[in-house]
Specification:
The protein is of the alpha+beta class. 29% of the residues lie in helices and 27% in strands. The strands form two sheets. It has a four-stranded antiparallel β-sheet with strand order 4-5-3-6, with helices on one face. A two-stranded antiparallel ribbon has the order 1-2.
Length: 107
């Protein structure tokens, strides 16, 4: 904000403990608690057509995907590996605090 020849400039680090204290736990505990079936997967083929996958979106060199209800990461990996896929990375996709907030306040 520029006012009367003066520049006011503010910088913030972002999520402070007070921002998420109401959720009851550390940031890692809260993210783990609100995690769903999302995974980050990097492999040599398109996995969006796999029957275990509900939806997927590109995420850099990887893809973020959500499994269908009742499906497991182990079943997806077994399907990919039995089909000859080369899987470079797979990890649980933890939600951001913004995603958790939307999930909590959405009716």
């Amino acid at each position: 904000l520029i006012s009367g020849g003066r520049l006011d400039f503010g910088v913030g680090r972002g999520y402070q403990a007070a921002d998420y204290a109401g959720f009851g736990g550390s940031m890692d505990e809260i993210k783990e608690r609100f995690a769903d079936t999302a995974l980050i997967l990097e492999c040599d083929r398109d996995v969006s057509a796999d029957p275990t996958v509900e939806r997927s979106v590109p995420d850099g060199a990887a893809v973020k995907l959500w499994l269908r209800p009742g499906e497991t990461p182990e079943k997806l990996l077994a399907s990919l590996l039995s089909g000859g896929a080369r899987v470079r990375r797979v990890e649980k996709a933890l939600p951001t605090l913004d995603e958790i907030f939307v999930k909590v306040v959405r009716p």
